[in-house]
Amino acid sequence: MCGIVGAVSTRNIVPLLVQGLQRLEYRGYDSCGVAVHAAEAAGAVPGTRLKRLRGIARVADLGAQAESQGLAGSTGIAHTRWATHGAPAIGNAHPHFSRGPVPAGMDGEQAAARPARVTLVHNGIIENHEALRAELLARGYFFTSQTDTEVIVHLIDSLYDGDLLAAVQAAVKRLRGSYSIAVLHRDEPQRLVGAREGSPLVLGIGADGKENFLASDAMALAGVTDQIVYLEEGDTVDVQLGKHWVVARDGQAVQRPVRTVQAMSGAAELGPYRHYMQKEIFEQPRAIADTLEGVEAVVPELFEAARNHAPGEGAHATFRATDQVLILACGTSYYAGCVAKYWLEAIAQLPCAVEIASEYRYRESVPNPRTLVVTITQSGETADTLAALRHAQSLGMQHTLTVCNVATSAMVRECKLAYVTRAGIEIGVASTKAFTTQLAGLFLLTLALAQARGLLTEAQEAEHLKAMRQLPNALQAVLALEPQVITWAEQFAAKENALFLGRGLHYPVAQEGALKLKEITYIHAEAYAAGELKHGPLALVTSAMPVVTVAPNDALLEKLKSNMQEVRARGGVLYVLADADTHIDSGDGLHVIRLPGHYGALSAIVHVVPLQLLAYHTAVARGTDVDKPRNLAKSVTVE
Ligand code: F6R
Fold first, then answer.
1. N or C terminus: fewer CB in 10 A for the chain?
2. What's the CATH code, domain 3-268?
3. CATH number of 480-622
4. Which SS3 state, helix, strand or coil, does residue 167 take?
5. Where is this gene product found (predicted)?
6. Closest residue CA from atom 7 of ligand 1
């Protein structure tokens, strides 16, 4: 959610900042901007000055403008925004400027024409921005945006006394909320200062020993440097040519480890695909195979102890002590948790509650210290999920495990145990391969818990693992159904509403299918547990209502068929995803796509794939921006 890139170099870094922004654009794309210490024009007073360019078009457009206007400089910051406070508009786009307090008698136009003294980019939300704004207004600062961010730049300006690091350190002490920031001051042309609290920021160390960088995600620096320092909560960082230092919250200089991060630039290329979402849907067989790689037996040690925890706090002891599971997640990851609940209760015989993280963190609940708290998150940076984890910990629940796709994320650092899925970077805002790999990880977790509780015979374990190893091939075969799904999508493209039905663990699959459709096609889609139909939603069913039904050949199929009859009797048109051995055939008002196999307990992982394809091709037919749906962004790092 929003992206930051910054650099101190000896070469012109504008193209590099723009390239970094392009890599982060999926994090927020309603406006973007860049600011640099630009050389003065010939004949002007020697020195440097802050220059910026902002736009509400895409980053590529910003890059073209920077080139045509000759914007250049060797120290700079850049940002791509997902609006929280203030509409997507140029005036609200980052970088923001502070030109100092307005002297008495100067009008607004003159005030805005003064050179900038400080410029800043920010990810996160400042909760006390109103109080700070009032204070800064009283001190003569002139605000030009509706953002919460602008208070930070003026605050830093007001505290500046010749040392940008000291000003930033003093300013962040006054902030409440979450932030990662990168700041430049007019009088310190080769210095970039950053700080973070509740929002990620990394330092990149240049290969030449001189250049140094800041970014909200190491991916922005792919191909530039692979030497990355992950800043910790409360850190500020001083970035200069050939040197940098990190200062912890207590004001002491600290050494944070430098890690070599595999270049991910290739992963961010589209290849033969039209959209990242399509690429990621088709990567699922590989992503599942990688996620399962090395799983020869379901040992609790698969769930590695995350960093900083003493030995002995291993998975086996935790799993044996567990008498309940609490899953915390948001969005698609929450639906993965809802599927896992069925597995955990049936196979591991553990009571399981699945909670929407943003609800759980604020409600009163009854803690049980023998609970295994499981967070599910693709990014590992989702603010609500992190806050829900911390809330559970504050209630005395210390057995924590995450199923997460980013090994270096805050979530992996903060949980005692982690199962890191290997989906690879997911760029499409609509999550696809992250979901199926989460499900694979959650199924393994179920088996590991069942094994630790003595509920799994060797034969049962071998049978489950055999089925898991067949998943990549099963997914490949389902992807081959794409042409049939496209014929459905052509019909859906003209619709404005759709219903999704499922029963048992296919109810959350139906929910995930509806979420995919609504977020990228803007078709209003709702999912119901099919048995709920007659308790209300049946009133919506007419011949104009497509009803997607997930109908594998499981114990609930006959019940589901009755629900389908209820729809047909009201003229609703059914689109049914069946297994190879499900006895339902296409007919009047009834369209059936038959999946090639029968997938048993793992059916949820397979049946979601045609739903992803349906949403994708419907979006393509409607001409929406598939990878960057309106109002959304990847990685929701604000509350
Ligand atoms: C929907 C989607 C979101 C995320 C949610 C949680 O396609 O991607 O609903 O699942 O924002 O994100 P993570 O998994 O990163 O915590």
1. C
2. 3.60.20.10
3. 3.40.50.10490
4. helix
5. Cytoplasm
6. 430
Cβ count within 10 A of residue 443: 26
What proportion of the chain, given as a percentage, has pLDDT over 70?
Answer: 96
Distance 271 CA to ligand 1 centre (A): 24
Contact status, residue 284 vs residue 475, Cβ threshold 8 Å: yes
Q: Is-catalytic flag, 2?
A: yes
Residue 423 CB–ligand 1 contact under 6 Å: no
For 276-469, CATH gives 3.40.50.10490
One-letter amino acid for residue 300 of the chain: P
Contact 393, 421 (CB under 8 A): no
- Give the SS3 label for residue 54: strand
Domain assignments of the chain as residue spans, ordered by start: 3-268, 276-469, 480-622
- 276-469 and 480-622: same fold? yes
- Say yes or no to pLDDT of 265 above 70: no
- CA nearest to 301, candidates 471, 439, 421, 445: 445
Tokens 């760029």 correspond to what residue? Answer: 427
Q: What is the pLDDT of residue 294?
A: 74
Please tell me which residue in 341, 416, 495, 634 is annotated as part of the active site.
634
Q: Which residue has the tokens 């959304």?
A: 632
What confidence category does residue 299 fall into, taking pLDDT thresholds of 50, 70 and 90?
Answer: confident
Residue 48 scores a pLDDT above 80: no
Looking at 2, 338, 404, 415, which residue is catalytic?
2
Looking at 116-120, 220-224, 357-361, 497-501, which range is the least confident one?
220-224
Q: Please compute the mean of the pLDDT values over residues 577-599 and round it to a whole number.
A: 91
Task: Quote the ligand 1 centre to 379 CA distance (angstroms).
Answer: 8
